[in-house]
């Protein structure tokens, strides 16, 4: 396929580290430019579901996660440009510090993503108890890797006029980086946080984005930010289809558990399933009394612990899920889905009954039990991945399985990451696979095809009145 020359105003908002304020700035910019009438396409660097959801709400777009660990470079660029092509502005939020990656050379960092996409960078700097030293920090960022195009800085959490003046004058004197905004300290975070980051939008009672946009308009030069984005260069790239051609949509029905308890999903995973021939049917583990008429289930992550009482009280749904698994229905579950499929969930001293598919107890702790990128090898036969294939993903869980010794074998041999127990992840019962690994379909391209194939086999067995066998890929 010949290369295409593509253009789109774009900018990456990066920080000096986690908690610098880049999410609030990104949300404010996204909503402010949307309110100006621009079509804003948002992206989140890294595997974060929560920030991505907030960016979607702020920009009225579907946010895609861009991560060089989860996605090969050609697919990552294709994903970016497939969504940016018709946008007036592509706004990317980085993660952690600008140069922080998975190793000493900064692999998979926000800086590497900015270089890959030829994207100018705006730094958000937490200026708490810092004045002239901030100029040295900004100068260091610009010289650390000259290929990273750092164009501006927004100074966050400033204390008063004197503090702001010294910060601005120091950066202007010692660096060539434009000061785009000086933000005072907020009395309270407009989007509160808890153990996994920002709280879910499902738990928020009002739209905070207009307030955040007004804050940015008041204290930052939005025209200058947009001008930086518009200076992003054109690129020449060979675009290819993100998904292979497949059979007709709707040949099988896959139920997606999606409510306030489970909602961690990548849009591209849905797109991959639909391209492979699935009709997706959403249902709620909290509100619905039984499963819809489907041929398979997809259960993502989320916050089952905070809604465990409601999940436990919905006994008819728990029983229907377990019965469907016993009948051989294919089920793919990640993290929160694993917790739901376990026997019990322990949270803040209370024991909640779950679906009891696996003889496991999961308990939520105050500190993360697994956090970061994961890479595994498929070690046992299952319906979704062929034996010995490589699986890339990530994990972020405060829960842990307390009794993994009852599991005879695990599906994934973990090479990087924690998983369910040191070196292992993924449990299988009949055609139900559950683990802590969150997977991106574009980085694991056979997953959707195999998922739909398993659902089709179950459907045929059900229609013919036969018992579905255990489906295993060689």
Q: What fraction strand? A: 25-35%
Task: State the end-to-end CA separation.
Answer: 33 Å
SS-based class: alpha/beta
Classify the fold: give the CATH topology of the largest domain: Rossmann fold
Task: Work out the helicity level.
Answer: 25-40%
Mean pLDDT: 94
Shape: globular
Structurally, the number of domains stands at 2
Summarize the structure.
The protein has 474 residues and is of the alpha/beta class.
Structure description:
By secondary structure, the chain is of the alpha/beta class. The chain folds into two domains: 4-237, 3-Layer(aba) Sandwich (Rossmann fold), CATH 3.40.50; 252-464, Class I glutamine amidotransferase (GATase) domain (Rossmann fold, 3-Layer(aba) Sandwich). Helices cover 30% and strands 28% of the residues. The chain is built from 13 helices and 27 strands. The strands form seven sheets. A seven-stranded parallel beta sheet has the order 4-3-5-2-6-7-8, sandwiched between helices. Strands 14-12-15-17-27-26 form a six-stranded mixed beta sheet. The longest helix has 18 residues, at 447-464. It starts with a strand and ends in a 10-residue tail after the last helix.
């Amino acid at each position: 396929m010949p290369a295409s020359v593509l253009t789109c105003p774009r900018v990456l908002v990066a920080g000096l580290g986690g908690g610098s304020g880049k999410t609030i700035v990104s949300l404010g910019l996204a909503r402010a430019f949307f309110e100006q009438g621009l079509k804003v396409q948002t992206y989140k660097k890294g595997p974060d579901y929560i920030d991505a959801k907030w960016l979607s709400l702020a920009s009225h777009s579907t946010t895609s996660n861009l991560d060089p660990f989860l996605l090969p470079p050609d697919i990552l660029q294709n994903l970016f440009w497939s969504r940016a092509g018709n946008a007036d502005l592509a706004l990317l939020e980085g993660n952690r510090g600008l140069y922080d990656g998975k190793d000493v050379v900064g692999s998979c960092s926000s800086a590497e993503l900015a270089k890959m996409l030829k994207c100018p960078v705006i730094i958000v700097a937490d200026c708490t108890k810092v004045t002239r030293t901030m100029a040295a920090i900004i100068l260091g960022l610009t010289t650390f890797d000259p290929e990273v195009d750092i164009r501006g800085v927004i100074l966050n959490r400033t204390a008063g006029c004197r503090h702001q003046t010294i910060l601005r004058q120091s950066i202007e004197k010692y660096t060539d980086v434009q000061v785009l905004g000086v933000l005072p300290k907020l009395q309270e975070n407009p989007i509160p946080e808890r153990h996994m980051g920002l709280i879910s939008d499902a738990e928020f009672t009002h739209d905070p984005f207009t307030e955040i946009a007004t804050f940015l308009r008041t204290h930052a030069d939005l025209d200058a930010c947009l001008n930086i984005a518009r200076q992003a260069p054109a690129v020449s790239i060979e675009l290819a289809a993100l998904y292979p051609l497949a059979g007709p949509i709707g040949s099988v029905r896959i139920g997606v558990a999606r409510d306030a308890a489970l909602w961690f999903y990548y849009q591209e995973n849905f797109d991959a399933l639909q391209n492979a021939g699935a009709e997706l049917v959403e249902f709620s583990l909290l509100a619905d009394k039984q499963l819809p008429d489907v041929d398979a289930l997809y259960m993502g992550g989320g916050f089952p612990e905070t809604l465990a009482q409601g999940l436990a009280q919905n006994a008819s749904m728990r029983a229907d899920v377990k019965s469907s698994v016993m009948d051989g229905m294919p089920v793919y579950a990640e993290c929160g889905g694993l917790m739901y499929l376990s026997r019990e969930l322990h949270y803040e001293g209370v024991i909640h009954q779950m679906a009891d598919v696996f003889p496991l107890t999961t308990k939520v702790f105050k500190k993360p039990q697994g956090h970061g990128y994961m890479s595994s090898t498929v070690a046992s036969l299952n319906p979704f991945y062929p034996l010995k294939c490589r699986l890339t993903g990530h994990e972020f869980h405060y829960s842990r399985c307390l009794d993994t010794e009852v599991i005879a074998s695990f599906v994934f041999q973990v090479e990087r990451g924690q998983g369910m127990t040191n070196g292992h992840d993924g449990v299988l019962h009949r055609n139900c696979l559950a683990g802590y690994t969150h997977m991106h379909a574009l980085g694991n391209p056979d997953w959707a095809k195999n998922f739909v194939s398993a659902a089709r086999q179950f459907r045929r067995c059900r229609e013919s009145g036969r018992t579905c066998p255990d489906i295993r890929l060689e």
